Amino acid sequence: MTKKTFNIVISGTGGQGLITLLQILAEAALIEGYDVKTSELHGLSQRGGSVEAHLRFGKKIYSPLVSLGSADLILSLEMLESLRVIHYANPKTIFLINKYLFSFPGSPPEKEVIKKINRVIKGKKYVVPAYQICKKELGKEVVGGIYLLGYASFKKIIPLKPNSISKAILKIVPKRYLELNKKAFELAK
Amino acid sequence: MKKILLGNEAIVQGALEAGVDFVSTYPGTPASEIGNTFARIAKKHNIYFEFSTNEKVALEAAVGASFSGLKCLVAMKHFGLNVASDALLPFCYTGTKGPTVIIVADDPSCWSSGQSEQNSRAYAYLAHIPMLEPSDAQEAKDFTKLAFKISEKFKIPVIVRTTTRVAHQRMPVQLSEIRKQKIENRKKGRFVKDVKRFVTMPPRVLEMKEELLKKIEKIREFAEKSPISKLSRDRASTKLGIITSGVSYLYVKEVLEELKLDLPVLKLGFFYPLPEKKVKNFIKNLKQVLIIEELEPYLEKEVKILAKEVNCNLKVYGKDFLPQIGELKTEIVTQAIGRLINKKLKIENSLKIENWKLKIPKRFPRLCPDCPYWFVFSAIKKAAPKGTIFGGDIGCYMLAGFPPHNIQDYLFCMGSSIGIGHGIKKSSKQKLIALIGDSTFFHAGIPALINTVYNKSNPLIIVMDNRITAMTGHQPYPGMGETGMGEATQEIKIEDIVKACGVKNLKVIDPINVKELQSTIKRFLKKKEVSVIVARRICVLWERRRKRRKKT
Known about the structure:
Chain A is α/β, with parallel strands linked by helices. Chain A contains 7 helices and 6 strands.
């Protein structure tokens, strides 16, 4: 890692499993010997609403929150929600976005969202159909987030080794879902 | 060994390391995971744990256990302390026998709270109760342990006040040993009669107050020596210093490190009693001091008073540069410090695109698919005549206030849909439907229901019974036949209580029968006396979870 800290903002909608991703990443950072802090929100407003979680790791971390314009990576499980956290980005921020739109009354059509993403995010971005891939290969959309973690790690978007994230998955994911999650992670190789 | 813990889990760890015997709580975000964790592990650690009916009852249970000599922890969200406050003040007068720690979680920015943006630090002044403010998960654990020590040493309950960003912050936490109690050795308390100590009758109560105030001065001396209030750097710089506490400290450190600024910082672990000598020493040679605290400027006021004694030329800044509304963050602290050192500070080069420019429509939280409340809301909308007033209360059914439902005309605190509904019905002829959840009904709805009967008003009350305390993450409550430790217990039926309160118009309906629900609403809205519908259908998520639990 060249920078002192690595800042991640994860966004999506309540129920997509953001907190699990946060726990896995935090554990992986600890495995690699980093200091790490996360911040998340619980409760009613998270139910199907917009959610963002923060994670920072490095030599020594104080604030659990990523400051405006200081995200190294924005990981979004939903396209519209990637735009909603854009104020954490700077021109160097990498975006890893699940090509998935959870529409609601009044939400713009997918085409328009993609157009906006392409117009606004001029730096590095990966728009990956993680849900589609996981649905096709594993029969379950829900592990799309884990697939994206694999994607970020194998493609070196996150400075955490695949091996550390694998170990973290083993620690965090409940036994009965472990096989499925491991597969989703490896699928991104 | 280090383990990544959520702030709330770290509090549980601290209580276990301190050897807690008795834990009580009522769930509320951002404190809920404390109870959830104890519910899971209490048996294994041979601790008594309960979800109490409400926070006042939870605190009273702990008072009883403390008087019987047990080590107690009580956890609640900030509003819970309002409910518990009636028991809190006399508890400070009597003091503890078994050490007792109260965890109170505030929620600046109201991420998971309606009602108000409460700053519970004011209770320290009101009740004369020592209050510690941790900044992170490690301190949440350490301060909980220290709070037990203070309580043991000075025989007084102690509050550990967290905020959302502490309670829901994860970090690697250094663990210590938990001395396991053997099942058969579980500490049994014993109440030893001591009228002088436990009875707060006048004139004794005034003596108690005097004893309490003396105690607080002794604790202040302890706070002066305690390492939890610390100078982060003993700089010679006298131009500008910073005083801060709680999570704000983390933002201050972040800014100073990032911008390589060398300013002296006094971090206060004790909010009350304030280590005044420490503060005086810190400010006496400064020209300016910036107080960085969230919400109301309590510390700022304290420092202004102390400055008059030791440094009357000192410029004390705080809310001049910092908001009184909403939580702080690094950016806000950067700007405040920047203004005082006359520099425009910027941490990073932001994309400078605000959400509003992108015109992203708001995504409202919504009821889960298949939630039984969908049926209730739909029946209400169909059955209620135009102009009907809809009273909201605290629970998932607050979503009634969002589209597509839009049936919430007032929302206050636990139980108030009925209490306020009564007042409106006494004042106006308009029709009124008050919604209240099952757990909320037990918590604070019953006295209000009795009031409607006794004082003769006629709202229609719909108890939204989904068989669990759903919003805070599925905690058991008195209506579902299971205790916080997973033991079977008497199921207290809401309809039995309603009947016993003298309500004549009562019907229990599965809301999936929308037609029946609609016609009952219509019929009951015409009644001259109060009427109650118990709309009973299990929360879908809870049902799924329960089935999974049964399988394994």
